[in-house]
Design a protein that fits this description.
Order of helices and strands: EEEEEEEEEEH
Structural class: mainly beta
Low-confidence stretches: none
CATH class: Mainly Beta
Largest sheet: 5 strands, antiparallel
Mean pLDDT: 88
Radius of gyration: 16 Å
Strand content: over 45%
Oligomer: single chain
Distance between the termini: 25 Å
Number of helices: 1
Number of domains: 1
Helix content: under 10%
CATH architecture: Sandwich
């Protein structure tokens, strides 16, 4: 059973989607104490065009947030390590996004580590300034829950 130690709070990151694909990381270890069986519980992830972008109406991009490095490219969203995927084409008025919370309703616990973010511009000519907002809580897990989380993570590597 997880016991919330904090109220929901947000972690912000900015990233530019370009033709090569940019990456950024969020170090969850700055928020959780793994030795105390704490985990970060992801409740929501929001990605959008930042107010600093010069041509938001033409924005076309893909963004993924994952538990493994995205430096070499996107990973299959069906994999355990993929937490969030967003495809946006403002020219066509199309957007698809998916937050993978797994079997636990409304929250996905992550036992520290790095969240990797990748943003790629698609066919538009302009880079796209984006924001990434991760909403979550710090929770203390029981030893059994923490072990289950660690075993699930290791079984999916």
């Amino acid at each position: 059973m997880a016991t919330k130690k904090t109220r929901s709070f947000e972690i912000f990151e900015t990233i530019t989607a370009d033709a090569v694909g940019n990456t950024a990381t969020i170090d969850l270890n700055t928020f959780v104490n793994v030795a105390d069986l704490e985990a970060f519980g992801v409740q929501a992830i929001e990605v959008g065009v930042n107010a600093t972008d010069g041509a938001p109406e033409t924005a076309m991009f893909q963004v993924q947030v994952a538990l493994e490095s995205l430096a070499l490219g996107f990973i299959n969203h069906a994999e355990y390590d993929s937490i969030y995927f967003n495809f946006t084409n403002n020219l066509a008025g199309a957007m698809e996004h998916s937050l993978s919370l797994g079997d636990v309703p409304e929250i996905r616990y992550i036992p520290g580590g790095l969240l990797s973010i990748r943003a790629d511009r698609l066919t538009s000519a302009n880079d796209v300034d984006l924001y990434v907002r991760v909403t979550g809580v710090i929770s203390k897990l029981s030893a059994a829950d923490y072990m289950s989380l660690a075993l699930t993570r290791s079984a999916n590597l």
